[in-house]
Amino acid sequence: MRRRACGACTVLIDGSSVRSCITPAKNAVGKAITTIEGLAENDNLHPVQKAFLKVDVFQCAYCASGMIMSAVSLLEKTPKPSEQEIRIAMQGNICRCGTYPRIVKAIREAAHV
């Protein structure tokens, strides 16, 4: 996957995280696209969303949707990631407030690690 500066625009295309700002629309034709708004089901937050709230990850929340979408993609592929795997998977997402330790903690919480 090509990674760019911040990752705030991350969406899932067929379960893989992609940056919508650099993904041509033609690459998404006929594929399942999930945005942050599509994660909750019947007003129930996704487990990653719940974990990010429980751990109180965000300050400004500019990066929130991108971080959550990247975490969801990671956990779909690697249900019990190590801290190193989390750090590698989240490299394309920038938190301007520097809450990285809480982000890692929330992903581990969502994975029940």
- Round the Cα radius of gyration to an integer and report it: 13 Å
Q: Bin the strand percentage.
A: 5-15%
Distance between the termini: 26 Å
Helicity range: 25-40%
Low-confidence stretches: none
State the major sheet. Answer: 3 strands, antiparallel
Strand order, sheet with most strands = 2-1-3
**H/E series, N to C?**
EEEHHHH
What coarse outline follows from CA principal-axis ratios? globular
Number of helices: 4
Class by SSE composition = mainly alpha
List the main descriptive attributes of the protein structure presented here:
113 residues, 36% helix
Write the layout of secondary structure elements.
Layout: E1 10-13, E2 16-19, E3 33-34, H1 47-54, H2 64-77, H3 83-89, H4 100-111
Antiparallel strand pairs: 1-2, 1-3
